[in-house]
């Protein structure tokens, strides 16, 4: 790793199922940058307090209010394990969130992993995730009943068809406009998310200049 990478602050943007979580883990393995998934933070919160989901309808595909998710990210990136750089997966996903993030940190790059909606739906319908280590399984890697870490492997509530539809609608309406926001800053990188996990990873390394 080059010394300049130590403070990498990378944002992953992409529709549901584009592979943000999958590629974030590969980047962590290769470069040591910590992936921080806003969705994983929210699901951990719901695990401790199910009324949080009843209140905000996350499993139905709704977004959490900006001030709450922003505060969660703000607290998380202060932790010591973020020192070697980090990858924000799922935050920001609105222009307003991107503007607030700019007052908190200096973003290096925003990387779009793009796939068509049809591919998102196909992948999410086959996705399973570990409750312990958050490892993601799917079409590319069949899920075991129990993860090697010992955690339970489950299907996300928001991977039901109606919630997937809602999440994709919100992505196109609320999140896609942030691409222009980062493009204007000269920070937007793009890869086509179709292909195998390994092929997409190679494309990501290339646009990052690795
Ligand atoms: P979040 O958890 O962030 O979900 P998401 O953005 O909808 O994205 P996903 O996790 O569904 O997709 P992914 O791109 O990570 O794909 P993955 O790598 O798993 O957010 C959940 C909810 O939290 C939101 O709906 C919202 O309510 C709330 N929230 C989060 N952030 C918020 C914010 N900023 N503001 C407000 N609310 C917020 O891959 C998917 C599947 O495909 C897997 O099975 C994987 O194995 C497979 N796969 C990956 N790559 C490939 C490939 N190349 N070929 C074949 N299969 C592949
Ligand atoms: Mg994810």
Explain this structure to me?
The chain is α/β, with parallel strands linked by helices and 210 residues long. The chain has one domain: Rossmann fold (3-Layer(aba) Sandwich). Helix content is 44%, strand content 15%. The protein has helices at 20-31, 38-48, 51-56, 66-76, 95-104, 117-125, 161-175, 177-184, 197-207; strands at residues 9-13, 34-37, 86-89, 109-114, 128-130, 136-137, 153-154, 188-192. The strands form two sheets. The chain has a five-stranded parallel sheet with strand order 2-3-1-4-8, sandwiched between helices. Strands 6-5-7 form a three-stranded antiparallel sheet, with no helix packed on it. The longest helix has 15 residues, at 161-175. The mean pLDDT is 95. Magnesium ion binds next to α1.
List keywords for this structure.
210 residues, alpha/beta, Rossmann fold, 3-stranded antiparallel β-sheet, globular, binds magnesium ion
Assembly form of the protein = single chain
How many domains is the backbone divided into? 1
Instruction: State the major sheet.
Output: 5 strands, parallel
Cofactors, ions and other ligands in the entry:
BIS(adenosine)-5'-pentaphosphate, magnesium ion
Mean pLDDT: 95
Cα gyration radius (Å): 16 Å
Low-confidence stretches: none
Question: CATH topology, what is it called?
Answer: Rossmann fold
Share in helix: 40-55%
What is the overall number of helices? Answer: 9
Helix-strand pattern, N to C? EHEHHHEHEHEEEHHEH
CATH architecture identity = 3-Layer(aba) Sandwich
| Spatial strand sequence of the major β-sheet | 2-3-1-4-8
Structure class: alpha/beta
Shape: globular
CATH class: Alpha Beta
- Assess the beta-strand content as a share of residues: 5-15%
Annotated CATH homologous superfamily: P-loop containing nucleotide triphosphate hydrolases
How far is the first residue's CA from the last residue's CA? 10 Å
Give a count of the beta strands, DSSP E runs of length 2 or more: 8
């Amino acid at each position: 790793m080059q010394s300049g990478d130590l403070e990498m602050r990378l944002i992953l943007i992409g529709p549901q199922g584009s592979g943000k979580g999958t590629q974030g883990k590969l980047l962590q393995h290769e470069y040591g940058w910590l992936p921080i998934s806003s969705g994983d933070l929210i699901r951990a919160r719901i695990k401790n307090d199910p009324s949080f989901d009843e209140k905000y309808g996350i499993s139905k595909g709704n977004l959490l209010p900006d001030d709450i998710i922003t505060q969660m990210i703000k607290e998380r990136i202060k932790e010591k394990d973020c020192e070697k750089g980090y990858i924000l997966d799922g935050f920001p996903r609105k222009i307003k969130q991107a503007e607030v993030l700019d007052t908190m940190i200096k973003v290096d790059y925003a990387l779009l992993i793009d796939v068509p909606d049809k591919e998102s739906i196909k992948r999410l319908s086959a996705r399973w995730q570990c409750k312990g280590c958050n490892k993601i399984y799917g079409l590319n890697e069949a899920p075991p009943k129990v993860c090697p870490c010992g955690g339970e492997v489950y299907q996300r509530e928001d991977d039901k068809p109606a919630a997937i539809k809602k999440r994709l609608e919100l992505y196109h309406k609320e999140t896609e406009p942030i691409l222009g926001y980062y493009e204007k800053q000269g920070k937007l990188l793009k890869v086509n998310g179709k292909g195998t996990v390994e092929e997409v990873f190679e494309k990501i390394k290339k646009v990052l200049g690795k």
